[in-house]
Amino acid sequence: MKLHDIQKLIDARLKASSKTNLNSIPIPKSIPEDEAKKIFALFNIPVVEEKRETDINRILEACRKTGFPVVLKGISEAILHKTEKGLVRVGLNDESQILNAVKEMKISAKDNIDAFLIQPVVSGKREFVAGMFKDPQFGPVIVFGLGGIYTEALKDIVFKIAPLNDVDMEDMFEQISSKKLLNAFRGEQAVKKQELKKILKGLSDIAQAFPDIKEIDINPVIIQPDGSPVAVDGLIVLEKAREAKNKPYDIDLNVLGSCYYPKSIAIIGASATPGKWGHMLLTNTLSRDYKGKVYLVNPKGGKITGRKVYKSITQIKGNVDLAVVTIPANQVIDLIPDLKKKNVKGILLITSGFREIGTEGAKLEEKLTKAAYEAGILILGPNTMGICNPHIDFYCNAAHAYPIPGSTVLVCQSGNMGVQLLDFAEQQGIGIRAFSGSGNEAMVTIEDYMEAFEIDDLTRTVVLYIESVKDGSRFFKSAARVSRQKPVVVLKGGRTSMGGKAAASHTGAMASDTKVFNAACRQSGIIQVNQPMELLDLSAVFSSLPLPKGNRVAIMTLGGGWGVITTDLCAEHGLEVPKLSKGIIERLNNILPPFWSHGNPVDIVGEGDPSIPKTCLEELLKWDGCDAVIHLGIHGKRVMVNKMIESVLRTDPAIDKAQAQFFKDLILQFEEDYTQYVVKLTQKYEKPVLGVSFLTDETSRTLYRLDGYEYKSVFFPSPERAVKALWGMCQYNDWRKSHS
What we know:
Strand content: 15-25%
Largest sheet: 7 strands, antiparallel
Mean pLDDT: 92
Number of strands: 31
């Protein structure tokens, strides 16, 4: 067989009449095992030698030439999984066993056997599985993991989106729990990884070359005693590939970016009734220092909030950049001609009642989107909670939250989630570049937002809350490209497995929507989190700290317990807590009392000298044995001290109130000095420093700034959040280095 013969074979199989299995249930069209292995061999996949025979005498002759013991397989287009039907016999030692096996297989398959395969017995104590299946969103997905009878029982498998490169394949080897089997094992040599890579790369190349191949299953891949892998079984399932859908709307990313900088907006559906969208968006926008023009449009005319109300947008003199629309869904399409006349660039479509309500709403949405696109107008939404750009004090959304200008973009497919995160960002002093509730994404999708902020100079971190993606392949490629420049942090809603996915091969059946999405994120450099607050925790560190150069962590703590917990957390997240060098121990001996821990974590034992935390922290940052520092319990003591002083003042009239206030001010000043000192040290040593506050109150923040410095002082309320944030930075840095 040659390469040009493969497509002919595939086409012939697809044209053949549908077969049925023994229960008269249609089965997917497939390529028999021996033909499949010929295809594998053309793509440099090592396969076992075998002979195909139908006549019993020729079967016996083939067994004699192969040499006993042999493997005998019955193959049938109507039976994809031979083992389940007793059509695989391993280790047959003589002709009588062959004859009995042939007879029993024919009975088991009800004489529905096309031929028999004769193979030598391949010895090896280790078995893996490799395969491919077509995911409806992400396209060809390559599978690797523990094989043989353990494949489905233990499900120790990993996924990668095709095409694969060497970094992808190395990561697959690293991810499986049974990776020790790739090393020397029970007298057998280590697996020849380059040979194993040929199998994975071959699968990737086959999938790219032949779109009509739906699934490939190679199970097992036996590792021979010398470490060489060989495919002893194979299955190819066919399905006519669907035509790739072109992106329905090409978005001008510069126009999308300009929607965050409107010089004029018209609120269509402006209302005088508090609580209505037309009033809420209006008052929210006007309550800030937005410099653009704000026009109110309502057919009733009159005045709202003391401003003139235009009965139509056409009555407004001059152009309008952004139309903020809150009128009923069935009336929106009638606006398009007037919006075109006013050169409107975008519609922020707050209105619901479209795709989210069902078929009729979906039809209305498609009709509206087509009309807007033909008029050269972008639609953001519909069913969105709005957008904001703190850099121009433009807050046109449901959240009466006003985070400071920053470098973190926040795009959420759930408006409520976005509102909560904006409020938290404001409370914690986390700067926001821009926010968008993406709504139904009728025209502008999550991929468009990601690509628009990819080219935005003010954006340092892209944070996404996602429930679904419209184009998985584009999402994957866009994320991989953006990640090379700036981190992309994702929280995925609906992470539970969809289950019940129809698949003809064992490989395909092992997949789930969640597993494939997670694999795409890891492969494209996306940092995934599990909780909403982790989105902003990571945005805080990415926007405020230098990336660590490695994963070695020095821990400084005011109390031993926190140090132990933080060490455990670091170990659980793959962060190393190295032993202190002799030199740094000697330097710390000059600062701390004799009974300090003399190890990492460094317990500074609660000494009252305010200079000790500063000098110890700097010594750790000087140390070339660490890449980052986590310090715990130094900041936030004022909360406890303030409460203690309040208790004393209530119960002891002899206490001087002025002296008590002086002491409170002293503690507050120490904390301010300390946060500023941390900023200076971070800038000086170019290593991330993450703090954990002793206690927090309503005035506590995540970020503390110092004028003239790029970096900030970062504090979290718990060790868990600090360690997870540092883990995210290390994970991203590792991906960047491996893809540089």
